[in-house]
Write a structure and sequence with these properties.
Length: 235
C-alpha cells in the first residue's frame, strides 16, 4: 500500500515576497522502478501531492541512506528545455549535466519537481516567452503577467527526502535563493556545487538576467558552450 507522509514543514517562497508560514505537506509515495538512461540505470520513485494532485519524481543511484552527503540536484520541470531541447534557457543542459555527474559518482539523487516556468505553469510560460520576444527579460515577463519573479516552493522536497532516507546533500545549483529556501524548510545542505553548462546566443541574456536580477552565483565565462555539450536524445 502507498505510504502517506504528512510532516509539518516550513514553507519558504524563494522570491521572499511572503513570510514563512507553517503548512502541512501531504505526499503519497506511489511506486518505484528502474529507469535505464544513457548514463546509468537509476531508480525512479514516484510521489503525488495529496492537496494538489501534482506528481513529482526522484531519480536515485546507489545507496543514498549512508551518512555521507548525497550529490543531488533539485530540478524544476522545464518541458521546453528538458524535452524539446530549447536553447532559450540552460535547464535541459543542467538536467543532463546533473545526471552525468551522479552517474560518474555512482551515487546521488535528482528531485524533479512539477513547477514549470518558475512556478507559473506551461501556458503562462509561453505567454512569458511571447513578452520576451517583444523585449522583456525573463523576470519582467513574469511580472507583467502578474506573477512574482519566482514562485517555486521547495517544502515538497522534505517528505520525499525523508522517505528515501537522504540526510544531507551536496547540491548542484547556482541559485542561492533555492539553497536558502531548502535550508529554511529543514534540508541539510553540506555543500553547493556550481552547474554551468549550455551557454549559447539564445540564452545569454537570460543567463545575464539570472545573475543580475535573481542573484545566481555564476560567471558566464565559466559556462560550457552549448556547442560542446553532447545532447543525448536516445535512452
Amino acid at each position: 500500500m502507498p505510504a502517506l507522509f504528512e510532516p509539518p514543514v516550513r514553507c519558504a517562497l524563494v522570491d521572499g515576497s511572503s513570510p514563512s508560514r507553517e503548512v502541512i505537506v501531504s505526499i503519497r509515495f506511489i511506486a518505484a522502478s528502474q529507469l535505464p538512461t544513457p548514463w546509468a540505470t537509476f531508480m525512479l520513485h514516484g510521489f503525488q501531492e495529496e492537496t494538489t494532485g501534482k506528481e513529482h519524481v526522484v531519480l536515485t543511484l546507489g545507496d543514498v541512506t549512508t551518512e555521507e552527503p548525497v550529490l543531488a540536484r533539485v530540478h524544476s520541470e522545464c518541458l521546453t528545455g528538458d524535452a524539446l531541447f530549447s536553447m532559450r534557457c540552460d535547464c535541459g543542459y543542467q538536467l543532463q549535466e546533473a545526471l552525468k555527474r551522479i552517474a560518474d559518482e555512482g551515487r546521488g539523487a535528482l528531485l524533479y519537481l512539477r513547477q514549470e516556468g518558475r512556478g507559473i505553469g506551461l501556458l503562462n510560460k509561453i505567454r512569458a516567452y511571447a513578452l520576451q520576444d517583444e523585449g522583456a527579460d525573463t523576470v519582467e515577463a513574469n511580472e507583467q503577467l502578474g506573477f512574482n519573479a519566482d514562485q517555486r516552493r521547495y517544502d515538497i522536497c522534505v517528505p520525499m527526502l525523508e522517505h528515501l532516507g537522504i540526510g544531507s546533500l551536496k547540491l548542484m545549483t547556482n541559485n542561492p535563493r533555492k539553497v536558502e529556501a531548502l535550508v529554511q524548510d529543514g534540508v541539510n545542505i553540506r555543500e553547493r556545487l556550481a552547474i554551468t553548462t549550455g551557454r549559447n546566443p539564445f540564452n545569454e541574456h537570460y543567463l545575464t538576467t539570472k545573475v543580475g536580477k535573481l542573484g545566481h552565483m555564476m560567471q558566464l565565462d565559466d559556462f560550457t558552450p552549448a556547442s560542446d555539450v553532447d545532447i543525448e536524445r536516445d535512452a
